[in-house]
Amino acid sequence: MKREITRSLAIAAAALLAASAATAQRGRGAGPAVAFDPHDISGYWELSFDSRHVPPAALATTVTPAFRAAKRKQDEYATRWCNWIGMPAAMDATRPIDIRQGRREIVMNFETIATPRHIFLDRPIHIGKDVYDATTMGDSIARWEGETLVVDTVGFDGAKGLSAIPGGGFRTSDSHLVERYRLVGNGAVLAVTFTWSDPKVYRTPHTYEYRYYRAPASYEAQPPIWCDPFDEARTAFLAGSTSRGGGNQPRSPGAR
Amino acid sequence: MEITRAAAVATSFAKATVTREVRYRSVLAVVIAAIGITGDYTRAQQSNLPDIEGTWVRLDTVGAGSFGAVNALTGNAVLTPEAAAAAAAGRQGGGGLRPGLVADDNKPHAAGEPYVVTDGSCTLPGGLEPNSSAFHIIQSKDEVLIVRENPGLHRTIYMDGRTHPDLSRWRPTVVGHSVGRYENGTFVIETVGLTPGGVPGGGRRTADTQLTERYTLSADGRRLTMTYTWNDSKIYQKPHTYQIVAERQPADSWPFEDWCDSGDPTQRTSVIPPKQIP
């Protein structure tokens, strides 16, 4: 009888250890502690040093040195003035991205200077160009194809935010982005392929893939690092000149 | 052509609705099974959760949308003598301006008299109550997000059963730390860890002040009544309560991007009051 109790206790302890180990491994790509729904990408997702597979883009001949210089200048301006960065920079986050899937809409909230992304699940067509004011995030609609969420985005404003696209090229007002989201690694990894089409920028559609790791379930959202366009030390740093101020003064909005 | 397109959208929407209906029924069956097996109260609540997801716009029924008339909605907070004295001292000292405001002198200005109210900064702090911009509510299993269509921190309400953090290790923010639950069809949010400052209706708050919000949906699903109750025995003689009502936006509406560019010189342009019509 005593042996039975000891055995039961040992089994219970082993189960607890296994559960806690599984919990501790969340965010390491080792699989979530509980069963996951392949049709729900909700969670906090973060990139790591090995998260990006980005081949070089086949740029169109219209991407002249002058075109590149103008786009580089636009991106420098957006950085200098703390403009909302938009797509695709927001998806290249240095902090976890909060993705929440509701009944009709998915929202992505970023811990950086970016507006949230709204991805509509219940709207089969884009808002008409005649009424839609282009944005740094664009107009996104999505549908499930098996266990892959396909997100289709148009309506970008090419003149605002950070326009550089990984692998080469730039977001313009004619850009068309198709993303394919798929949970892999037993739900611990969110694999996303990005395919940009834009005849003014690419000879052929440009595709690259990011793999986001699921952050621990206990993660707490943090305010973005404060971006102060009137911080002279920051401005001098960005311009590459020396500064007596000693560098940026990171703060949080709302914590002032 | 437009009729064909509208018909296609309607057909597509109808198909999507039917598909959703089937999926919801399946989900409901799974939830019922889960309750039967585990007795999990949280899952029981899921089947009864109010559908507050969508785009909402604050609906002020009094005050014509002016900032000064907000007290008509909120009433006046009944402060403790100590809190009243601190509030008066704060007013004397200027009370601290919202980031970006440079000259909030709170004086009337004659028509044609220019005055500057902003330094051009676009990084506004955000806040708890909805403002004049639309806001979106997204309900997921572990979290509810409330995001405004203008700059600032957005609200994260944890639904996974976690508790508030130790406030001695928490850096206060304008949205604090929020946990939520559903109670008989009402969405309830508990918030602490807020930055010290003012509360509508002459109230005050510190990081220890507790805010309870109760979101109730009207029977037709078109109105959301948000009841705010502030509790802090060091500040209030009785809980300070007020309500804000929001109206649901049409299902085919879309979010605006409230673009703001600190590098644009017009961002710092003076306000010039127009001539008033008698």
Number of domains of chain B: 2
What is the alpha-carbon Rg of chain A in Å?
22 Å
Distance between the termini of chain A: 64 Å
Mean pLDDT of chain B: 77
What is the H/E order of chain A? HEEHEEEEEEEEH
Structure write-up:
Chain A has 3 helices and 10 strands, in the order H-E-E-H-E-E-E-E-E-E-E-E-H. Chain A is α+β, with helices and mostly antiparallel strands and 256 residues long. Chain A has one domain (47-239). A 9-stranded mixed barrel of chain A has the order 1-3-4-5-6-7-8-9-10. In chain A, strand 9 and strand 10 (206-214) form a beta hairpin. Chain B is an alpha+beta fold and 278 residues long. Chain B has 2 domains: 2-46, no CATH class; 54-94 and 125-248, Beta Barrel (Lipocalin), CATH 2.40.128.20. In chain B, the strands form 2 sheets. Chain B has a 9-stranded mixed β-barrel with strand order 1-2-3-4-5-6-9-10-11. In chain B, a hairpin with a 3-residue loop joins strand 2 (135-139) and strand 3 (143-148). The radius of gyration of chain B is 22 Å and the shape is globular. The termini of chain B are far apart. Classes of the chains: A alpha+beta (256), B alpha+beta (278). At the A-B interface, strand 3 and strand 4 of A face helix 1, strand 2 and strand 3 of B.
